[in-house]
Each structure stands twice: as structure tokens, then as C-alpha cells.
């Protein structure tokens, strides 16, 4: 029986991380109508902006099959994209809502949902080649918006850059040697917004910074 292939070499039944495989299989038994598989990226490969998150949320992207779709983080992210012209259509918390991204693409550092939303270092390492391949496949890529410290670290490692030279900080702008720019943001999770660590205004501003890093 052939394995269905998703994007950047991912398969629906990717076997690389035993803990994530077990969690996936358990969720398929509990929620047969969910996606319950590695979540492919969303948006065009010729986009100039790549948004990188941590991993699919259990009842969000893991259920819907689209990054940041179906949970609070997606509500804030897609509202921001729509407001700034980086998306068209209407966001309705489902993968078939017709929403289209404009000159940006969204992915996760780890493509499978991890228990308690916490990938292990080994799982991050196993999934890193998919992120590296994705970035290399984006021929017009100019800027990366790293949503959270985990995504920040994953991008640096995938690019072979030292973390000590690019410290994570909300709103920080990092110029890479190859001409890419990475912008950091606190994760747009409900926890961060409820505690005031990240406000909607802060998130909108960091996205404006990301758009300003793009050039023709």
C-alpha cells in the first residue's frame, strides 16, 4: 500500500518520531474525522514571506489540516493577515473556507501535533530537514516571521546559523548572511494574549515590520 505524500517529502504516515506516531494513532481512534497527520504548509511557494510556527495544535491544525486553523492563535494570525492585505477571502476556522494567502506562506517547525504542544529536541531534529527543504524551495523568499522562540531556533538551525548570534526577542530583526531577514514575535497563543505578554497591537506591529523587510 502506497503512502500518501504531502508537501516537502512528508508522508501522511511519517514514521520518524515514535512518540508522535503513537499520539497520531491514538487521535485517529478518538477523532476519525480529524486530519490527524503531518500538516502541510499553506500558501504559495513563490511567496516572499514565510511564517513559521511551532507545531500543529491538537484541536486546531491537527484537526483541520491547515496551519493555525481552528484555534485562537489562528484567529489572531489570519485576522492580521487579512487586515494587512496578506490574505483574501474569509477565515472560518476550516481548511476549505476559501481563504487565500497573498505573497506569504505558513508552516510549522514540527509538522505533527505533539502531546502537550511540546516537541522534544529529537522530534525537532527529525522534522528540521522538511523546514530546510521548504525554505530552499522558496526561490523568492526574503523574510521569515518566527512565531515563538521554538520557531526562531528551528529556522536558525535549519540555516546552519549560531543561536548565540541571533537572540530571540519580540520585534527583533535579524539580518542573515545570505540576505534573508528574520523577524521575531511572541507566539500568538491564547496564553500569551490573555496574560498580556502579547497584545493584538504588538502582533500587528511585528507583522508590519515583516512586510517592511520585503523588497521587489
Rounded average pLDDT: 93
Strand order of the largest sheet: 4-1-5-7-6
Strand content: 5-15%
Order of helices and strands: HEHHEEEHEHEEHH
- The helix tally amounts to 7
**Envelope shape:** globular
Flag low-confidence runs.
Answer: 1-6
Let me know the number of strands. 7
Radius of gyration, in angstroms, nearest whole number: 16 Å
Distance between the termini: 46 Å
Query: How much helicity do the residues have?
Result: 25-40%
Judged by helices, strands and strand pairing, the structural class is alpha/beta
- Biggest sheet descriptor: 5 strands, mixed
Provide structural commentary.
By secondary structure, the chain is an alpha/beta fold. The protein is built from 7 helices and 7 strands. The chain has helices at 18-30, 61-64, 72-83, 121-137, 149-158, 190-194, 200-212, and strands at residues 49-53, 87-88, 100-101, 104-108, 143-147, 173-175, 181-185. The strands form 2 sheets. Strands 4-1-5-7-6 form a 5-stranded mixed beta sheet, with helices on both faces. α4 packs across α5 (149-158). The chain is globular and about 45 Å long. The termini are far apart.
Outline of the structure:
The chain has 216 residues and is α/β, with parallel strands linked by helices. The chain has helices at residues 18-30, 61-64, 72-83, 121-137, 149-158, 190-194, 200-212, and strands spanning 49-53, 87-88, 100-101, 104-108, 143-147, 173-175, 181-185.
Amino acid at each position: 500500500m502506497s503512502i500518501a505524500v504531502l508537501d516537502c517529502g512528508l508522508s501522511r504516515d511519517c514514521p520518524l518520531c515514535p512518540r508522535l506516531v503513537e499520539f497520531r494513532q491514538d487521535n485517529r481512534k478518538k477523532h476519525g474525522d480529524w486530519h490527524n497527520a503531518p500538516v502541510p504548509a499553506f500558501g504559495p511557494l513563490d511567496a516572499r514571506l514565510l511564517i513559521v510556527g511551532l507545531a500543529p495544535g491538537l484541536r486546531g491544525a491537527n484537526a483541520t489540516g491547515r496551519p493555525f486553523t481552528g484555534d485562537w492563535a489562528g484567529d489572531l494570525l489570519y485576522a492580521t493577515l487579512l487586515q494587512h492585505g496578506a490574505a483574501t477571502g474569509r477565515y472560518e476556522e476550516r481548511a476549505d473556507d476559501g481563504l487565500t494567502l497573498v505573497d506569504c506562506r505558513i508552516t510549522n517547525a514540527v509538522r505533527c501535533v505533539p502531546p502537550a504542544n511540546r516537541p522534544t529536541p529529537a522530534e525537532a531534529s527529525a522534522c528540521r530537514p522538511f523546514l530546510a527543504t521548504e525554505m530552499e524551495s522558496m526561490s523568492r523568499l526574503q523574510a521569515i516571521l518566527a512565531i515563538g522562540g521554538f520557531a526562531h531556533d528551528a529556522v536558525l538551525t535549519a540555516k546552519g546559523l549560531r543561536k548565540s548570534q541571533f537572540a530571540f526577542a519580540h520585534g527583533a530583526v535579524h539580518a542573515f548572511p545570505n540576505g534573508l531577514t528574520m523577524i521575531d514575535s511572541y507566539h500568538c497563543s491564547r496564553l500569551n494574549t490573555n496574560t498580556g505578554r502579547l497584545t493584538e497591537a504588538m502582533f500587528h506591529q511585528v507583522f508590519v515590520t515583516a512586510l517592511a523587510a520585503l523588497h521587489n
